[in-house]
Fold this protein.
Amino acid sequence: MIFRECAEVARPPIKIQIYSTDIDEDAIAVSRGGIFPANIAIDVSQERLRRFFIKEETGYRIKKEIREMVVFAVQDVIKDPPFTRLDLLSCRNLMIYFEPELQNHLIPIFHYALNPDGILFLSPSESIGRFTNLFTPIDRKWKFFSTRQSLSLPQTAGTLGLPLTATLTGHGTTEPAIKPPETNFVELTRGILLQSYAPPSVITNEEGNTLYVHGDTGNYLRPAPGQVSLNIVDMAREGLQLELRKAIHNAVQQKTHKSIRGVPVKTNGGMHLVDVTVRPIADPRTAKDLLIVLFSIIRDITRRKQTEEVINRLSDERKTLIDNVPAMIWYKDTRNNIIRVNPAGAHTIGLPVEAIEGKSASDLFPDDADNYYQDDLEVIRSGVPKFGIIEQMRTASGRTLWVRTEKIPLTDERGTVTGILVFSVDITDIKLADDELINRSEQIRATNIELTASGQELRKKERELLDALAEKEVLLSEIHHRVKNNLTAFISLLSLDASCEDTEGGRALRKDLQNRARSMALIHETLYRTGKFSNVDMEIYLTTLIGQIASSYEGSTAIRTNVNAQGVVLDLARATTAGLIINELVTNSFTYAFPPGFDCLAARGETCTIRVSFARVDGTYVLTVADNGLGLPAEIDPLATKSLGLKLVNFLASHQLRAEIEVWSEKGTEFIFRLNNINDNK
Amino acid sequence: MTGKIILIVEDDGLIALHLTELLEKAGYQISGPAYSGEMVLRSLEESTKPDLILVDIGLAGLLDGIETALEIRKRFSIPLIFLTAYTSERTLERMREVAPFGYIIKPFQERDLLALVGEALERQVA
């Protein structure tokens, strides 16, 4: 604490290192703890207690800043080598326990340990004895002594066995002189050389317990973790312990120096290759040997170590990857042998990895190995990877798989292919689906070709049919034209004078026949005019028919005709029949309904009218033929008459049109026909 | 003459009317005329059996004349005479399957028809 207080005010600042030693390890251990009993408060000022101690339950713990100033070590001041170059050596109340002989042994050692102008501090009851040539009193009461410069070594110095003593010459002088300059120079040089070139080293006893430390040994030693020990092996850093223990053991056993070369040591924050030499040295005071352990770093391998760690980590990651990838990975040599397989590969084959590695592919795949090898050889010869090989693979259980394989050549640094990396994926499902798809697609293509052919055939047939139809239409048109012309010719034939008797009956018969033939001829004319060959537009047909009948009756101009058959279309057979019926009824109306003297206007209040209507009512065709004339004579039953006209009407209506017939004869005559089953006929 | 009953199956009204008048004048009793195969089969089940049937081959309706004749043949042994406007080989071949008494081609001579009808009825009596 005093040193610290002084050091703080010193200009320039000074660095203080205190070594504290005792022969008793227990005492050292207590000292290291830095805990003092509570009663020190009696002697230690409040200010210092506050500044340098931490109050604890059992007392005071010295603060780190003071504790770190002190290095504790077990030391036998008599037997063990001394510290050197000390500025102050305090050894109080020790020598009083020693015999004078031993005291005389110690004082020169103290002198040796101290720097020139160093100070020795003894207790009041102790003294330097006869060694006034070595020390000069500074304070007689407090027993401070200053070293005296001397060329001579203390008489015991030569027995210390320290290698460096050899450089000190001169002996036994009593000259109380100041240290000569040349000696000072030698000391200085020695110090500089030691400091600069001597390797960090440690003096230990044969058990390896540290006695003295030279230089910075931080790269090799550190406080033994978890235990209070000064044993160099315990203090050795990671990597060094085993080798060091062995070297110490051997050096002691064989009494010769032992070297360890290039031990990788985890130094403070790095990794170094370290050389260590353990050399036995004789301690002349005892029969026992001491050991000097010299350390040196030969190479910094921190970077290399880090790189190795990265590589190891990468390698581990790669292994994890290879072990877990859901694809088969094989490593083969160039002679079709399997060197490595990943778990996925082994699992697929159905064998343990050990049963595969080292085997020839021929043993594992008797059916396929030759094929595999052909690809291998191709890759080996070309040095170029081969991708997308689709091949079969048979498992141990006899199942056949489809796999997609990539083969990649592995080369050495000279570029020679030394092996092949085979990467296979099971594509059995895809392959089967694909085959099925190809199969289907072929079927579809075949069907498509057939369909196209059929389609072409159909189109050809259709063209032929259309051609044929066009031809038939021409023919039909021609036929209807011919039929109409034939009937027209027949009508003309009837017109010839000699065609019938020139009587009233004969002429009437001729007219009836001509009208009937005309009604038929008109049907055919309507068909070819309208360009339809089986369906007759009744509006067109009836308008023409009624017009022609009207024009054949002289004096018919007073009789109006009214036709309405809008939208009614009948097949040829029924149109012809309807035409005949209408012809009979309209002819009757012209002939009998309006006799001379019958006054339409007077009797009916309107013009003489013959009305024909054909209409569709509730799915039934209704044909009405009516006049507003005289009406049927009371004695005539229109449904049972033997007259040809009405007989024809009745028979044709019921037999061919399958119609219900109603006859009304109140204000003229009205025939109503309801045609049943309109779609029943062809 | 004999009051024999003849069933006429003919869908053309004018021809049916012609046949009816012609055969009635010749002294036969006329049944029908029917205009479809279905109508004939129904009337054969219900009314007096005719002695002879005249069938038009080109009937309207679901059954044509030949099919109607085949149906009649299956159920009754009544002689048949076909009336036809068509004389193609195919038609003649189909007619032969029915084994009719004979056939008349339209338009026919009244004399030929009456002769054939008379022959058919006489053969039956014999």
In short: Chain B has five helices and five strands. The first helix of chain B runs from residue 13 to 25.
